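Hi support team,

I've been running sequence recovery on a batch of backbones for a student project. Most finish fine, but this one hangs at about 90% for roughly twenty minutes before it completes. I'm not sure whether the input is malformed or the queue is just slow. I've pasted the structure tokens below so you can try to reproduce it. Let me know if you need the job ID as well.

Thanks,
M.K.
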């Protein structure tokens, strides 16, 4: 079996990894689940604490109505691009007497308006998904999206490098904490690859000697210039 196929302009791997990776990309939850609770971030089912000030690249987001049953998501209704989220009444399950009890013992709506952010570790390419239905969490995602949109007015392919943090928030139950995805840098989402120093680089590399000589005199990263 040939591991590399000759393309028109480049060598293209045909080892099956891209086809298999497409299965992961089709999932709603990609990689490990990121959770936020009591001003701290956690990873996975084991709730492993996230190292302070950890940085990840936020590569995509999605919005969905998620139906919960028996303490687990049983159905996702993802928002279509350019189409508003369906109204809650359109989803059914409107009889409060049939709802399961929440952590407070009160009937809990099985459908939760949810935002998801897909993130990647810039050094290992490990994938994570932050899923949130809280007011503070949704605000966090919306604020990040707004910042990305402004940056893309001048840099259409920009994706943010974010630091996982927390901020205080006033609620009717007193002072709580909310998640923060603080932008600390910007990357180019087009043709991103990893070099030996684990830096994100645009690909393919320059082909002419003059281009190579010019780059050797500068830092080889894909941070957006200002």
């Amino acid at each position: 079996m040939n591991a590399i196929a000759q393309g028109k302009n480049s060598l293209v791997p045909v080892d099956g990894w891209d086809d298999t990776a497409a299965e992961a990309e089709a999932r709603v939850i990609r990689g490990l689940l990121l959770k936020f609770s009591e001003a701290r971030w956690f990873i996975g089912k084991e709730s492993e604490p996230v190292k302070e000030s950890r940085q990840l690249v936020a590569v995509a987001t999605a919005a969905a109505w998620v139906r919960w049953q028996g303490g687990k998501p049983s159905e996702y209704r993802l928002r279509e691009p350019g189409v508003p989220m369906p109204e809650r009444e359109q989803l059914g399950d409107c009889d409060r007497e049939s709802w399961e009890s929440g952590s407070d013992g009160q009937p809990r709506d099985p459908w939760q308006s949810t935002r998801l952010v897909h993130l990647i570790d810039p050094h290992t390419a490990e994938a994570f998904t932050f899923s949130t239905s809280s007011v503070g969490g949704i605000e966090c995602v919306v604020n990040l999206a707004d910042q990305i949109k402004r940056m893309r007015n001048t840099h259409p392919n920009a994706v943010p490098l974010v630091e996982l943090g927390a901020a205080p928030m006033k609620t009717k139950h007193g002072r709580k904490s909310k998640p923060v995805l603080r932008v600390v840098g910007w990357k180019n989402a087009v043709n991103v690859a990893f070099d030996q120093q684990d830096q994100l680089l645009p690909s393919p590399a320059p082909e002419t000697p003059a281009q190579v000589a010019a780059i050797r005199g500068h830092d080889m990263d894909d941070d957006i210039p200002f």
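--
Follow-up from support: It reproduced on our side and the slowdown came from queue contention, not your input. The first strand starts at residue 4 and ends at 6. No action needed from you.
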